[in-house]
Design a protein that fits this description.
Length: about 180
């Protein structure tokens, strides 16, 4: 499998943070969302050099800790950080919440309904997705702080930060509201 298609998280990583259906076909429903979270939410913040190196060396130090999270010492104090797994779980779940139940058929896209349940309306799904996106952004800010405090372990991030001013984490949601006259 090509490294760019390696998923950094698995079903067990979700179970600690979000409720997922026990019998859900996890790989079928979540694989695309996980990869999109990695490529479009995580990679722009870390920068390509650090992201690629992390994916290729994910089981080695210092990336195993960066991915899993944990504790570290900085200026005489101990800190906890949540790790990239939590970031990806919430970004992927936010993407899933917006697409949940949407399936492609010969007649086009449909939203499946059953006699026993009814899908969330778009407003509720958007609210759920926004909640998980906000958790992901908070966790990502925690990861960035860890990287910056341990920059000697992540020199590729320093290169990215100097070269690309677009690496900041989205800290809020922009809303455009019409002005009444």
């Amino acid at each position: 499998m090509a490294d760019e298609l390696v998923k950094l998280i698995v079903k067990a990583d979700f179970e600690a943070h979000v409720q997922i259906a026990e019998h859900m076909e996890f790989d079928r429903f979540m694989e695309t969302h996980i990869l999109n979270a990695q490529l479009y939410d995580l990679r722009p913040v870390l920068g390509d050099p650090l992201y690629v190196d992390m994916v290729k060396n994910r089981a080695s130090a210092p990336y195993d800790d960066l991915i899993a999270g944990g504790e570290y010492a900085y200026q005489g104090y101990t800190y906890f950080f949540q790790g990239i797994k939590k970031v990806l779980v919430h970004f992927a779940y936010a993407r899933y919440a917006m697409r949940n139940g949407v399936q492609d058929t010969a007649s086009g896209l449909v939203k499946k309904k059953t006699d026993w349940s009814e899908p969330l309306d778009m407003k509720e799904a958007t609210k759920e997705a926004e909640y998980h996106k906000n958790l992901a952004v908070a966790a990502m800010n925690d990861v960035v702080k860890y990287i910056e405090r341990n920059i000697s372990l992540f020199p590729l991030y320093a290169t990215h930060a100097k070269c690309d001013s677009r690496n900041s984490v989205n800290r809020s949601t922009i809303r455009i509201t019409p002005v009444s006259r």
